[in-house]
C-alpha cells in the first residue's frame, strides 16, 4: 500500500531488507549457507509479488551487512559472505521472471562503506547488462553527522581550530571519498545510490 502511494505520485521506490533484527549481521562461513537460503526465500517472495511493477520500483538486496557492533575493516571471510549475499539476491530476483528479468537491482558494499567497497567489493554476476547499481552510505565525520552528544556541531576546514569540530572529515576527505566512488564504480559503468547520508 505504501509503495503504491509513492508510485502513484511519480516517485521511485527502493525495497530493501533493512536490518530486520540484524539476522544478516553474521557474515561468517559457518552461517553462509543458511543465511543465503533465508535471503533467497525472502527475495523470491518479494520479487514474485512485485514482478509486474515498472522501473519506478527498484530492489536492494541487503543493508549495512557487518559484524554487529564492529565497524573495523572486514576480513576475507566477512567479505566473501557479504559478496555471496549480493549474488544470491541477483540470482533469485532474476529467476522470478517478468519485469524482474531487467529490473534495476542495487547491491551493497560491506557495511555500505565506501572504503570497504573500494577495497573488498566484488560486483555480482548478472546476465542482464546495465541494470545494476551499487549502494554506499556516508556519515563522515561520525562525530558531526551521527554522534548525538552535542559537542561536534561545526564542520569544514574553516572550523578546524574549534573544540566543536570533529578534528577530521573536512572537504579534502569528502572529495577523496566521492572521487573513489567515481573512479571505482561510476567509471566502470555502475551508478551509485547514496542510500543514507
Walk me through what this model shows.
With 197 residues, the chain is of the alpha/beta class. It is built from six helices and five strands; from the N terminus they run αβαβαβαβααβ. The protein has helices at 2-8, 29-50, 76-95, 114-120, 142-145, 171-184, and strands at 13-16, 57-60, 105-108, 132-137, 192-196. Helix 2 runs parallel beside helix 3. The longest helix has 22 residues, at 29-50.
Give the overall average pLDDT. Answer: 96
**Quick one: how many beta strands?**
5
* SSE succession: HEHEHEHEHHE
Shape: globular
N→C terminal distance: 26 Å
* Strands in their spatial order, largest beta sheet: 1-2-3-4-5
Secondary structure class reads: alpha/beta
Measured by DSSP, the beta-strand proportion falls in 5-15%
Helix content: 25-40%
Could you tell me the radius of gyration in angstroms?
18 Å
Largest sheet: 5 strands, parallel
Low-confidence stretches: none
Helices, by number, come to 6
Write a brief caption for the model.
The protein is α/β, with parallel strands linked by helices.
Annotate the secondary structure layout.
Layout: H1 2-8, E1 13-16, H2 29-50, E2 57-60, H3 76-95, E3 105-108, H4 114-120, E4 132-137, H5 142-145, H6 171-184, E5 192-196
Parallel strand pairs: 1-2, 2-3, 3-4, 4-5
Helix pairs in contact: 2-3
